[in-house]
């Protein structure tokens, strides 16, 4: 599996950055055309869309609140933890991509400083699922960045060779990504454009993670069995964090993540002992 992933990554070209950068430029031009580059106007032009999406998706609070947890790297990566044994190249790219996504998220949130919906609107006028997210860091959506960073790495890792399979695969990943990303609007944490911009930045972060890991061997130690104790310690820490999450919030998604991570931890220990 790992050799196929490496081969798929080796075929990628920098032209893949063209479309997401073009989309960001188009969004900026549309905002400029609507005189919405200032914060109040930015919020106002998507007010109706926010309430519409929030109202219709907010009818399923348990589903939305569970799905939105995929924007947390701890949860999403727990489901992919087993791949560290069978396709470590994916994890090399994930490490690089998520570090870049963190840099993008933190810096852009501080630059734009857009207030959250819970700060701007009457909290009784829309669905807030879970704890109300306040502050002035709405743009871009960090959860959306994380989701699309991970999905982009997976998208190109398992890209089918035949064109007739590529379109369904790409469409499926895109649809799943948007469903997960727009849970941020459903729970009342973000405006629609926050999510769209975050998704595009996540795609760029995932691509950068792939290209960086392809050129630089920063995370090659992941594939070396003698360093498995480091991974075992990291996974144990993540298991403890998941247990803490479960004690605070009894979410179904946490149970699944815990089971997945525990199985992966067992497999890694087993592989290390048998080396």
TrEMBL record:
Domain Phosphatidic acid phosphatase type 2/haloperoxidase, residue spans: 93-210
Keyword Zinc tagged: no
Transmembrane intervals: 12-32, 67-86, 93-112, 141-160, 167-187, 193-213, 225-247, 253-273
Pfam family, one: PAP2
Matches recorded under CDD domains: PAP2_like
InterPro entries on file: PAP2/HPO
The protein's name in its UniProt record: Phosphatase PAP2 family protein
Keyword vocabulary terms for this entry: Membrane, Transmembrane, Transmembrane helix
